[in-house]
User: Fold this.
Amino acid sequence: MNSSCAFTKTNLMNFDRASMREYFQSLNEKPFRGDQLIQWLHQYGVTDFDAMTNFGQKLRTLLREQATFEIPTIIREQQSKDGTRKWLMQLSDQLSIETVFIPELTRGTLCISSQVGCPLRCRFCTTGLQGFKRNLTVAEIIGQVWRAVRTLSEEAGRHDHQVTNVVFMGMGEPLLNFDAVVKAIALLEDDLAYGLSKYRVTLSTAGVVPAIERLAKVSDVSLAVSLHAPNNEIRDQIMPVNKQYSIEALMDVCRCYFGKNSKRKVAFEYIMIDGLNDRVKHARELVKLLQGIPCKVNLIPFNDQRCDLQPEPTFRASSLDTIRAFQKILLAGGVRTIVRKTRGADIDAACGQLKEVSGC
Ligand code: SAH
Assistant:
């Protein structure tokens, strides 16, 4: 045997409650110890085994030898005039991701990443421009939440409940990192961890149809769908994923996502791009498309994506008048529609502006 063979400690940040219980069983401990660890780690933010006072000395020593907590670290912070904060977080292999916190009067939304880069290459999105590096682990996904909660609590000088909502709308396509994302959602909704209700955790997808079906079976998370077009012709042009899963197939899974008896609604996101998808005829087409689907629509003003990777503007934002007129048609057609306020654009923290290399 080679005694110098490297021993890697188990990163406990990777476990949701079920896997933490299994881990403790593998140590010949009672599964409820796993519940206690989840609570120390996520509810109280404690990563020092010696501070876990309901564990005996022997167990603490064992854990110190076998286990660890690896959590992304904040290497840069930017704050917008409107209070939005963007953190650049570093991962253990030196890659980095961005996480955005959007405080409002009655809630605080944390926007988290699920991949480094993104393989989908939507034409309007900066994240896609930089290509895809890799999936994030559970530890790196939930670690963004852990880090944000800790940072905000330390600043407030007490444990703080500023993060009231979490959205998977940062970098990456969450449904292409299915297992890790589902575990992270379980932690977000776990009363011993972050205790958020299913209404306050939202997964946003560009429309990976079979994975939406799968998700409905294993999770009750709220669903947002990046639609951005009323028909296949336009959607094909701006979202390559549409060539694989057509708008009709997407509408079919959205119709069923919450089940017949639910009052919950899928949120469709629709970026308003000048001349491309913002005309009266597009609004009318959209009303037709959404007929019979329990949904609401968020109209998003297009955010500029110019940076080193994209020096020339490819698209322009619709005017506010155009957006209002579009909204009116949807409302008249019985579709609940709001215009999303752009937050954090001055620090490139708005939708579609997140990227790995912040200097871009
Ligand atoms: N891949 C998932 C999660 C990313 S969410 C998804 O596509 O839903 C990021 C949101 O920002 C998506 O709705 C995306 O379509 C939107 N977005 C991307 N680029 C944008 C831009 N330039 N302006 C406004 N919104 C943009």
Remarks:
- The chain has two domains: 9-68, 73-347.
- The mean pLDDT is 93.
- The first strand starts at residue 10 and ends at 11.
- Residues 114 and 172 are 5 Å apart (CA to CA).
